[in-house]
């Protein structure tokens, strides 16, 4: 499901991801999974969320209500945002259905900033623990390389650490932190280095390679992932659609980790 945000930079991100995803459709037994997830999952594009454009409160309330209906019907969601704020109403909906969750968060920023703004793409993970939606002690933020509050309870694996360690080592730590809690997985595309994802509103150099990110996402297949999103693609800043392609590929890998569990 796509949520077009009020923020200009990411407004057309979901459409760009959809468009470039056609480049990925040809591969049946996808490497290295060696199966076709379409044989295990019934995937439906629920279209765009309709709301009063520019009205963040209306968007938030409508998105939460729509997500609650899908979850109540037994569906799982992979959402495309523009602005990362969309994760907060999605967390509210998922918490009503699954209870308090662990957060696995890929980003250049922690988004735990208490700036007093109710609707802001840098405050969601300050608000979510305060509302009891996620448990910071079982949550991990990956790829961070900007200022953050070290007392917020989250485990932060900064980009330097993640780049210097093996993917297997990082994955093992994530699993240890999360445990058996239900997990919400959110991927801000600016977690990637701008060399791999220039088309985003707040790029920060020194990030993850696309190869490292894919390996980490694949390594999460044993977690109890109940919701997922990919956000912050800004096609106006993109080059040759490489950011949209990275986002579409990561989204596809998220579907594959769900499909892999179906085949067990």
TrEMBL record:
The protein's organism comes out as: Raoultella terrigena
This chain belongs to which protein, by name?
A: Agmatinase
What InterPro entries does the record tag this protein with? Agmatinase-rel (IPR005925), Ureohydrolase (IPR006035), Ureohydrolase_dom_sf (IPR023696), Ureohydrolase_Mn_BS (IPR020855)
Q: One GO BP annotation here?
A: spermidine biosynthetic process
Enzyme Commission code(s) on record: 3.5.3.11
Q: Which family does it belong to?
A: Belongs to the arginase family. Agmatinase subfamily.
Q: Which reaction does it catalyse?
A: agmatine + H2O = urea + putrescine
Q: Which cofactor does it need?
A: Mn(2+)
Free-text comment on the cofactor: Binds 2 manganese ions per subunit.
């Amino acid at each position: 499901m796509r949520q077009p945000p009020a923020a200009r930079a990411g407004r057309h991100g979901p459409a760009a991801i959809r468009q470039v995803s056609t480049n990925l459709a040809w591969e049946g037994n996808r490497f290295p999974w060696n199966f076709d997830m379409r044989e295990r999952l019934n995937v439906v594009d629920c279209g765009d969320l309709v709301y009063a454009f520019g009205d963040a409160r209306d968007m938030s309330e409508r998105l939460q209500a729509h997500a609650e209906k899908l979850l109540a019907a037994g569906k799982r969601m992979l959402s495309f945002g523009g602005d990362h704020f969309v994760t907060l109403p999605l967390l509210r909906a998922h918490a009503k259905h699954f209870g308090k969750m662990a957060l696995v968060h890929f980003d250049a920023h922690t988004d735990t900033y208490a700036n007093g703004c109710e609707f802001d793409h840098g405050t969601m993970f300050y608000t979510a623990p305060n509302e009891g939606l996620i448990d910071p002690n079982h949550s991990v933020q990956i790829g961070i390389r900007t200022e953050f509050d070290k007392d917020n309870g989250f485990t932060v694996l900064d980009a330097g650490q993640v780049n210097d360690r093996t993917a297997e080592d990082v994955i093992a730590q994530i699993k240890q932190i999360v445990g058996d809690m239900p997990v919400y997985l959110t991927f801000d595309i600016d977690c990637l280095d701008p060399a791999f994802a220039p088309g985003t509103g707040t790029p920060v150099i020194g990030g993850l390679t696309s190869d490292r990110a894919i390996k980490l996402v694949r390594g999460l297949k044993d977690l109890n992932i109940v919701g997922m999103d990919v956000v912050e693609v800004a096609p106006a800043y993109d080059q040759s659609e490489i950011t949209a392609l990275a986002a579409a590929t990561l989204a596809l890998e998220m579907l594959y980790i769900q499909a892999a569990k179906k085949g067990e």
